[in-house]
From TrEMBL:
Top-rank lineage group of the source organism: Bacteria
Record field: transmembrane: 51-69, 75-92, 104-129, 141-159, 171-192
UniProt KW Transmembrane keyword: yes
Keywords: Membrane, Transmembrane, Transmembrane helix
Organism: Komagataeibacter diospyri
Lineage: Bacteria, Pseudomonadati, Pseudomonadota, Alphaproteobacteria, Acetobacterales
Name of the protein: Uncharacterized protein
Amino acid sequence: MSDRGISPEPNSPGLGMILKGMLLLGRGRAEGIAYFGNTRDSVLAALAPRLALWLVGGGLTIGTAPQAISGVKVLFALCLILLPAVVTHALARRWKREGLWLRYITAAWWTDWVTLFVGLAVALLMALASPKLLESATGAMILNGVEFGYSLWLTWYVARIGLLLRRGQAVVLVLAILGSLGLLSMAVGVLSPNQRAWHDFLYPLLVQQGQGSAHR
């Protein structure tokens, strides 16, 4: 079956189908796109885990430092979540692929989690092969490089399959996402040059998790 021969009907798949679709797309299997819905409810379901983390992180950020800059960090994090959807929807309209966008963004948001699993798998392999390497700066560079490279490929692949794009168009979409996120980060840096909004937004959540683990 060719990549462009897939035209599944809209559906409301359960978690099992979503996981199967994630694994298929994560391995470069185009048929995985058929396991994601093409409805607004499917999009909201894919967005829900991200918003849940955003709400928890936002609450901890504001609770830790109830200042105006905390609100900026929370809004910045929300923009990071939603901006790729805005950019890809604009490109889908331009390329006359708007009818495919709901399924695409649903698949894109769900398959983003595959990168986390890949990173965990690489970290486990490194720990088994050489624990010292995993704890070193070189190990961190390898792990981050693998995760970033895989994330770029997966973003490109899901866009190509989900929106039925040519290879070059999918590259343009990936670059547009990266460029928009870069511009957003630069804008935040100009407005608050002494703040690292994304890092500071996540830090209270990471500390909270670390404290919870220590008490177990």
